[in-house]
Amino acid sequence: MRVLLVEDEPRIAGDVAATLMAAGYVVETTDNGEDAWFRGDTEDYDLVVLDLGLPGMDGLAVLKRWRAAGRTIPVLVLTARGTWSERVEGIDAGADDYLPKPFRMEELLARVRALIRRASGHGAPIIEAGSISLDTRQMRVSRDGVPLTLSPLEYRLLAYLMHHKGRVVPPGELLEHLYGDDESREANALEAVLARLRKKLGAEAIETRRGFGYAIVDTPA
Fold this sequence. Notes:
single chain; alpha/beta; Rossmann fold; Arc Repressor Mutant, subunit A; five-stranded parallel β-sheet; four-stranded antiparallel β-sheet; 8 helices; phosphoprotein; DNA-binding; DNA-binding response regulator in two-component regulatory system; transcription
């Protein structure tokens, strides 16, 4: 899952980014509104964590421009502005959730997980496809009730496919959400991760649609 973090306070940005990466997310950061608006308008993210008090274009203006342009990406607003009227203004501008500072990282992660699940049509924290179960809270995967040990890349790949089960995901989209901007996006690397994942899940678990992409097969357990 690919997250854009927009925060101009270095300590908070570092802490939030480290927490999100430890939870299995690909995180890209920026500290100003102009760059945030451009990235959100041209790149595909699963979620934006957006501070309102940004230099130049503030977070509220960024959010309004995204929504006016038809961008529906989930947005979690972070802000030191704590009054109810400011919260209402943020929600009315198109925010999906609102977290006032200071906050606990556990709460931020819970809200991030919930927003990403809801955006892909999943209400419960455990996503199932056939015999495969993905616990988004604990980052645990099991098959037929037996826990599996996955590498971070394997987990990210499976989590993205599970969140989008029932849809064929193109290779380019998978690479974006698996590696982000900071790592090589090579088709051969993607195939290698898929091969390792199929050995653990069963060859039939992830279907290849030649010329289109990959899909999780949701068959009865």
